[in-house]
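Side project, low priority. Logging it here so it doesn't get lost.
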Amino acid sequence: MESILSFFNLDKLIKKKDQPVQKPPKPDEESVQPEAVVIKIPIKKHEIKNNYTGIKNAARGYMDRKKLLALKIVKGLNQRFEGDLSKRVSEKARNVESKLETFVSGFPLPDYVTVYSHPAYIFNNNTIYSGQWNDKGEKHGKGIEVCADGSKYEGHFKYNKRFWNGRLITAEGDVYQGEWAKGRIYRGFLQRIDGTKVTCTFKNGLLHGEGIEESDGWYYKGNYKYGLRHGKGMMCLKNWDFYEGDFKNNNKEGKGIFIWYDGKKYKGDWKDDKMHGSGIFTWPDGRKYQGTFQNGLMHGFGVLNWPDGKVYIGEWKFGEQDGRGKLFNCNDKSILPWFGTWKSGQRIEQITFQIGKK
């Protein structure tokens, strides 16, 4: 049997059939992994250091070129300023600054803008700036700006404009300090060269809104409009005179009450800082006038009462009885009324009435 199978090579076929079939490996199945070849190149330590230094120098050179490029695109930039920056500040501004505390601008609001510091540069308009710049060549970050007129600003900038916290000393010695936006102060305080201090909001660089103003015993609390006292407010003067009411363009105008330190009082209309219109004026001795006023004086028609009961009803001119009027005593009926004409406060002509005569 075996000979027959071997004769026809069937024994080999049967053995191959009984053996398991070897399948080719799938592409994702790992077969024999090649060994990694590691080539070791000896590098000395000083060569690593030199290469690192070269990279640093290249990076520094790139940043320096970027800074210079930023300055080249600044509009109006003239040349580097080599002098003493403080000498370009006006004398009045320097004197005021010497009496102030050192200004601390604090930290700016985060805006994630890369800034660079440079020496002072002078612009074509003679403005000098020393501080930080962004990569667009704009004043950005902390800096000091001295203008051609001798005024000095110290604080923060953003895209070429004064921003956030800063202090400006004008050439005349006025001080603006507070929060800035779009190049102008909008909230803070103003200290004038005469000693006046104002805490207020600002609009276009002018006092605007509610504020408080103080100056050598003089006090105001109220509204401002474009730099002037305007609207409702109260004022206490150095001599303790007091006013509360309406203001217009820095003057008392509208309705208001004024109380003098000696006890006099006026309540009524005002115009151009004077009593004008209808009002009531009282004296400490009990006298009382109710009528019209013009340019701060009783003028027109009014009634004056005395504490003893005497009453004048009639015309007034520049603070005095002038024209026709009537004088009588409401407490003493035995005193006959006096009708007549007054001139500069004096009775000059009496008018008599004859009862029953036609």
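Brief comment: Residues 31 and 85 are 78 Å apart (CA to CA).
Revisit when time allows.
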